[in-house]
Each structure stands twice: as structure tokens, then as C-alpha cells.
Specification:
The protein is mostly helical. It has one domain (3-85). Helices cover 87% and strands 0% of the residues. The protein has 3 helices and no strands. Helix 1 (3-25) runs antiparallel to helix 2 (33-60) and helix 1 packs parallel to helix 3 (62-85).
């Protein structure tokens, strides 16, 4: 899988997980709203990073891939933690 394909899959997976959580959030307690807002900020940071990384990927390859995967895994864990609290 190419670097670009790999990033696209990461982006799609996180977007799907985010969309599913949004639906569940409508049923969740109001006190989780602040936590969701923080996750939304992190998601926007991720999207910005993916865009930046995609532009720079040809230059730095593996290091950027590792950093982005780490960031995505951290965000994925935060989504999973949030989901457990729903």
C-alpha cells in the first residue's frame, strides 16, 4: 500500500469512527459534550496534519508516516476511551 493510500485509509477509518460517535453522542449525557468538543479539536488537528503530511510525504517518507500513525493511534485510543464512557 502506498503512503498516500495508507493515509487515505487512516483518514477514512477515523472519519467513520467519528461519525458513529456523533450519532451516539446525541443520546449521551450532556457532561460528555465538553469532552466531545475537545476530541473535535483533536480531529481537526489530525486533518490538518494529514494534509500537511500528504504534501510533504514525498520528501520525508518513513519518519512522517511513523509520526502520523502515532498521532492517529493516539486519537483512535481517545475515541475508544470516549466510546466506553457513553
Amino acid at each position: 500500500m502506498s503512503l498516500k493510500d495508507d493515509f487515505q485509509k487512516l483518514k477514512e477509518d477515523l472519519a467513520q469512527q467519528r461519525d458513529e460517535l456523533r450519532v451516539q453522542l446525541n443520546l449521551a449525557k450532556a457532561d460528555l459534550k465538553d469532552d466531545w468538543d475537545e476530541l473535535e479539536q483533536r480531529y481537526e488537528q489530525f486533518r490538518e496534519k494529514i494534509s500537511q503530511v500528504s504534501r510533504e510525504a514525498e520528501q520525508s517518507g518513513q519518519n512522517i508516516k511513523e509520526a502520523t500513525h502515532k498521532f492517529a493511534e493516539e486519537l483512535k485510543k481517545e475515541y475508544e476511551d470516549f466510546k466506553r464512557r457513553l
